[in-house]
Write a structure and sequence with these properties.
alpha+beta, Arc Repressor Mutant, subunit A, Alpha-Beta Plaits, 3 domains, five-stranded antiparallel beta sheet, four-stranded antiparallel beta sheet, about 25% strand
């Protein structure tokens, strides 16, 4: 095999991964010499292309955190892809695809526009503490600042760090209840020596959760979707646990969903008005109509007041 064929991003990254997985401490300058590329290229490899890896940098040398040595596999890369938000985004996630994704010639083919992500660069230490508490199953104390008030939570069992629509949350159990805490609101994390055992039902709830709202019991929801909006609901799920129960000759749809809290469904219905209505629970549709009626009344009253004042 020629040096030219070796000198591809896929080959270079695979070799760097092998070195890291074997516990080597890597100097960017030495890697640049080995692969015959510019130092900036290696720096981009380590800081951007391999940003999903738990790398540490000491005295200018990069290495994989000891807990991860010898454990990287293709399944891990799949999991990293999930965290990066590309799992399911492309038709197939295979070894060939992963090689292609590092090919500079193909990078210009894709343009993915996604959510704007919350900037939590100032919360790196909090992330690190929560990661360690989750890995070692240790209880934590949390201090949150919200709407000008500081609140303290003790004996919190941290399960998972979640990114939902670009916002980071801690999925945890507090006082026997499953809760989510906004990472951006956390001011302090204290890890205790007290261990806890993760409950399988909580793990399953986190895995199946769609959105940050949740409750002890889920609600079955039935929506009527008019033809003008039907194509969008058929293209991809727009509501949690969406299923198309029936397609009508008129082009309308009957859609079912399962949510833990009304706030998981009401903003979506509002967005698609007047093409979507809640069939069940009927009380949710009644509440929505009352809310809309009150909004229209306030708007009309404000406009009338403005007209009177101008006269």
């Amino acid at each position: 095999m020629t040096r030219g064929s070796h000198d591809t991003i896929a080959y270079r990254l695979s070799q760097i991964l092998i070195k890291l997985n074997q516990g080597e401490r890597l100097a960017p300058e030495a890697l640049a010499d080995e692969f015959g590329v510019h130092l900036r290229t290696i720096q981009r490899d380590l800081k951007v292309r391999l940003a999903y890896l738990p790398l540490t940098r000491r005295n200018g040398l990069y290495q994989l955190e000891p807990a991860f040595l010898g454990k990287l596999s293709f399944k891990d890369i799949e999991r990293f892809a999930c965290l990066a938000g590309i799992k399911g985004l492309f038709p197939a996630l295979s070894n060939d695809f992963l090689r292609d994704i590092f090919d500079e010639r193909l990078q210009a083919v894709w343009l993915v526009k996604s959510h704007h992500f919350e900037d939590l660069s100032d919360a790196k230490d909090i992330f690190k503490q929560l990661e360690q508490a989750i890995v070692h199953s240790r209880m934590v104390g949390l201090e949150l600042h919200h709407e000008g008030k500081t609140k303290r939570y003790e004996a919190v069992a941290p399960y998972r760090l979640l990114n939902i629509k670009g916002i980071w949350y801690l999925a945890a159990v507090h006082q026997g209840k499953y809760k989510t805490f906004g990472i951006g609101k956390l001011q302090r994390v204290d890890i205790s020596d007290a261990p806890f055992e993760k409950a399988p039902d909580i793990e399953a709830a986190i895995q199946n959760q769609e959105g940050v709202w949740h409750a002890d019991t889920n609600h079955a929801v039935v929506l009527s979707v008019a033809a003008p909006a039907a194509a969008y609901f058929k293209r991809r799920p727009l509501v949690p646990h969406q299923q198309i129960a029936q397609e009508h000759e008129s082009g309308d749809l009957t859609v079912t969903a399962e949510v833990g809290h009304p706030k998981q469904i009401l903003p979506i219905v509002r967005y698609w008005l007047p093409h979507v209505r809640i069939v069940s629970p009927a009380s949710w549709q009644d509440d929505l109509e009352q809310e809309l009626s009150a909004y229209v009344s306030r708007t009309v009253s404000t406009q009338d007041h403005g007209l009177t004042a101008s006269i």
